[in-house]
Structure formats: structure tokens, C-alpha cells
Amino acid sequence: MGKHKTKDRLFVTRTEHEFHFGGKRQFDGEWVPTAKLPLAHCALTFQPCENPVCAPDGTVFEVLHILPYLKKYGKHPITGEPLDSGQLTTLKFHKNEQGQYYCPVLYEPFTDDTEIACIRTTGNVYSWQAINELNLKQKYFKDLLTGEPFTKNDIIVLHTRNNNLQSATKRQKPVTEKPSAHKDSENRRAFIRETPSLTCTTWSSDSSTKKESTTKSPSLPKGYCTIVTNHGNLNFELDSETAPKATRFFLLSLQRGCLNGVRLFYEAGMNCIRTAELQGLPGGEDKLTETRLKGHIDPYVEEGLAANKLLISSKYRLKKTCHFVISCEGSKGLEGNYVIFGTLVGKRETAQALVKGYVEELVIEGMKIYVDPWEDKIK
Hints:
- This protein is an alpha+beta fold.
- The protein has two domains: 91-202, Herpes Virus-1; 223-378, Cyclophilin (Beta Barrel).
- The protein contains nine helices and 18 strands.
- It has helices spanning 14-19, 63-73, 128-136, 164-171, 186-194, 244-255, 287-291, 348-355, 375-378; strands at 52-54, 60-62, 89-90, 94-95, 116-119, 125-127, 155-159, 201-202, 223-229, 232-238, 263-267, 272-275, 278-279, 309-313, 321-322, 324-327, 338-346, 362-371.
- It has an eight-stranded antiparallel β-barrel. A three-stranded antiparallel beta sheet has the order 2-1-3.
- A hairpin with a 5-residue loop joins strand 1 (52-54) and strand 2 (60-62).
- It comes from Galdieria yellowstonensis.
- It is found in: Nucleus.
- Belongs to the cyclophilin-type PPIase family. PPIL2 subfamily.
């Protein structure tokens, strides 16, 4: 008998090797990474995100880096599972006056130990404590800022102290609550009365109010493209679901080269960036617009227009003349005359240089389309 109380035989069994001699043991738990990326850092480049999005499993990426990767490989760069751009959720992080990321409901800054989650339908990021206490326990399935309904499956965990939180969330049965049947509990009423008005800065501004009569087209992924100018690039996210006609018109203009050489200049009277007038429909008629989108009405801009929105003049519907506009803070004269169909999501310094007068004009030299929501519809 030896030191480790082995039996008197000429070989070592697997159990003896595993438990007495420091051999490899069976892994009986979930894999936990040795280090985590800081909050709002891209898992593909390890750099801070300017326009963060997340995959269904909660992995955060920079939209301008993950889209080319998905277009080339079509897989999740971490897990290797199939992934497309339509599954990405645009995240809306909030910052306090000190520039720290924080929960816009509990007003608590995020730390390395804070459990963080987002709502898939809105992209708003909250602490898990806020979602658990005010949504799950109260059975109140509405976004705490916007009031938009969601289900338990729409909760995406972004950051946890341990990796068991997300799996526990997935094990819960999805429950869809009807907004009309829900009644706030006394605890939630008291919380709302005590909570001051929510004022915060976000990376993604809320979109402008749309008419109730606006109809949505069949489910389409968001489009992403880059316009190359003589003083830098402009990156846009296109809302193809709400304004499909304007999105289709814009992408056709890019693909057929109708915007090459077009000038972008600052309009001081309206406090916005706009292009010169374009004559007619770019490249001729479009059968897809005339058939599948016949009868659809894109929404006009109303009051409360946020900055960095991409718009087109309503004259494009008459197929005579039109121009594109990028809104600025405090833009005026756009209500009722323009259709909003996109957002400037990256390279905003190029637009700011034009607004501040560092450059006189921008000339469009080319384009690159990362995601065309109409690509599969044409085939």
C-alpha cells in the first residue's frame, strides 16, 4: 500500500489517477471565461463600441464591424452558430452627467458586478434588478421607458456576475401579457410616483413620432450602408420596415450611381444638411415598388424630430424631383414635407465638420451597401 492507499497491483486505475494523482477531472459545470470584456466593448475587435448591437445570446458587437463579418461568413464569431443581421438588436446605453453608463430607472451606475440586460423590442439597457423587480415580479411586460410590450423571451442578458442568470431566464416559460388586461400593482405605482422625470443621454435618439395610420410592410431587416465622400464616410442605418418605399428608392439611387458627384451642403435656414435637387426616379421604374409596396404610405415627419436622421423630400412620390436631408439638433421646417427612413449611426464627425464650417461641402464619390433588405425579395 502506497501513500495514496492504492491497491497492490501493477497499474493505476482511472479513478486513482483522477482523484489521487492530480489527473484531469470531468468538468461538471458551465464554462466561465477567465476574463470579460469591459461594458460596451466589441467582442470582435475588443474596442469600445460607437454603435453597439447584440446577438441573441447577449454578445455585444460594433455594428460596422459585425455586418461585414456576417455578410462574409454568416456565423456567430464566438460560438460559430448561424447568425444574420436581422437577429441583431441595436442597444441604447444611457449615461449620467458624469459620463458613466447607468440604469435609467434605478439611476445606479453600472460596475463589473452589475447584472445588465436589455429589451429586444426597444434596445433599452437596464440593470437586471430593475427588470426583475418591476417587470418579472410584477408581471408587467412593458418597457420601463417607452411602454412598448414585450415577452420574457425578449429579455437579453448582456453582463452577469456568473453565467447562470441567462440560462435561468431561458428556462422560464414565455408569457405574453395583454396590455389591456394588466393592472399596475401598488408597489409599482409607488415607485413611479417617487421616480423623478427620466433625463438621460443615449447613443441612439428616439425616432420621431409617426402617424397612427401608417402601415408597416412585411417583416424586413434593417439596411446598412456607407456613403463615401471627399472628406470622409457617412454610415447609415435604414428603417426598411417603417419606410420601405423611401429605403428602396435610396438604395436604388446608390446602386445605380445616381448620387455620385452629388453635393452635400449645410442649409443654415433649416439648420440641416441636404443634397442638391435630383431629377426624376433614379434609373427608371422599379417593379418591386410598383407591385409589392403598392398602396403603402411612408410616414411623414412630425414634431420632435431628433438629430442625425436621414430624410427624403416628399416630392419623390411624384417621380419628378427630390433631395435628401440629414437633420441636426434644432432642425426646422421639415414637418409634413419629408419622410424619415434612416439614421446616421457612424462617422458623425464628417457631418459635424460640414455643420461647423470646417469644410464647405461634401461630394459623394461612392458607396458600400452592407445589408440590402430587398436583396432576397428580388430573387
